[in-house]
Specification:
Length: 151
């Protein structure tokens, strides 16, 4: 079982600048290294209305841009709620950037009431993300937000 409290402390120590670009790159790399069974981790940023643009990530080249109306990332941006999907192939409008991905967890990154972007995690193992993974990863996103200037 993953010790998310320890990972939160480690991530907090790693994020030694307030710069969003550095911190989002470090957060993506840290999660990819520390959380098992992932094949993609990264940020999509809201820079245009109703659209997510690719930000720092770890993994294969990714889809860009993603409209709020499509896929799991779009649903997280649209609803501002975490999306945990056991089998992405069962999602009608899933955007398949990597055919090996089976499970997905997408966490909105909120600054006050404003959507800054989303953190997207993909796994090649169906059903990879549990409720405790969701809670732990949401806590890591909160560490990122607290240590980063997201204006």
């Amino acid at each position: 079982m993953t010790d998310y409290a320890l990972l939160a402390r480690q991530l907090g120590a790693l994020l030694d600048t307030r710069d969003w670009l550095t911190n989002s790159a470090q957060t993506s790399a840290f999660i990819m290294q520390e959380i098992p069974e992932l094949n993609w981790v990264g940020f999509y940023l809201q820079r245009e209305p109703q659209r997510l643009d690719l930000g720092p990530f770890q993994g294969k080249p990714a889809c860009h841009p993603i409209p709020f109306s499509k896929g799991v990332c779009g649903a997280a941006a649209r609803t501002r709620e975490t999306q945990r999907v056991d089998d992405v192939h069962a999602v009608a409008d899933h955007i398949a950037c990597d055919a090996a991905s089976r499970a997905e967890l997408v966490i909105p990154v909120m600054v006050a009431d404003r959507l800054w972007g989303v953190l997207d995690l993909d796994s090649p193992r169906q059903g990879r993300f549990s409720a405790s993974d969701q809670e732990g990863l949401e806590a890591l996103v909160q560490v990122f937000v607290e240590h980063t200037d997201l204006n």
